[in-house]
Amino acid sequence: MRNDLIILGDSWHKDSATKQLIEPLLSGRKVLWLEPDTDTAEAYWPQGQAFANLYRLGLKQYHWSRWLGRSQWQQQARQIRQAISDHGLQDPVLWVTRAELEPLLEELSDIKVVYFCNQAPGVGHPLVERAELILAIRPEPVQQCPAHKTQLLCSQPLPLQLRPKDLPANRPLIGFCGRLDDRLDWELINDAARWRPDWNWVLIGPKQTRRLDTLLRLPNVLWLGEKTQQEYGAYLQYWHVTLLPLLECPGIANSYGLTIRESLALGKPVVTRFKSQHGGYQPLLTRVSRGADLAELLPVLSLAPVHPQLGQRQGWLGEPARAHTGSWADQAANIDAWLQRLS
Fold this sequence. Notes:
Blueprint: E1 5-8, H1 17-25, E2 31-36, H2 39-43, E3 54-59, H3 70-87, E4 93-96, H4 102-106, E5 112-116, H5 126-130, E6 133-136, E7 150-152, E8 173-177, H6 186-195, E9 200-204, H7 211-215, E10 221-223, H8 229-238, E11 241-244, H9 257-265, E12 270-272, E13 286-287, H10 291-301, H11 328-341
Parallel strand pairs: 1-2, 1-4, 2-3, 4-5, 5-6, 6-7, 8-9, 8-11, 9-10, 11-12, 12-13
Helix pairs in contact: 1-11, 6-10
């Protein structure tokens, strides 16, 4: 059963990311959207069968500020609870877009929270602690948020590409694209690939070390040669985990900023070997130093995508029916899966 949603802190008439993400989520769940009780807000409210599950709660005192008294927050909480009862919302989740709404959440302490983070809330902010899932379309606001419950969304969709013919489909995929030289931790890759024969290990890039020949003796390791940046995008869309097994070399991390951004935007977990900071992305990456650790983590990391036809997680997720391009619909499908885990 899908969680119903309550949207706090955004307006439907604004062409916001929240609106773009919520529209695809209306199928199969009820959504209660809090709006100011004004003629303008009502005039923009959508009509039609497609929005039959969307309900508007107009609040007289819509102005939210930390200076509001507790009695005003309690009054709004009572209105929300009454609307939950009136519309029959089941196991609702609060979708919150503004950190100053934390006093209202205190009055709704029994309801789970998703925090759609647009501005940095500050280290240790109660909303960050309270939220069970944190979403953002930029890395800067979530630099200090716990990585285990933070997901970075794509601000601009990537073009859909066909599955490359040389990309195997018999096992889940972990991939690396870059120079195949001695700056990589070949021991980590070799150990992890031996521990995980049920995964295909895909390497893309120019061969610049003989250590690659040794690794290719393993039947589950594939070297697909060099690819253009455009071609690489197709491989990235279809594999499950991005691997950056780079040793601690000065400046090397900066060369992979685009790979990190595109992988996270597509919902692909990124595993790194090095500790260097990559802008605001470091908290969103998974760092390992041994092949055994990576092998143990892979089944957990691969739970991020969901089979789009079955709508459920499988042992290795099955073969994806389509690539994830970062479109609003794709990202909404990921959010739908994350919400179901909160049930």
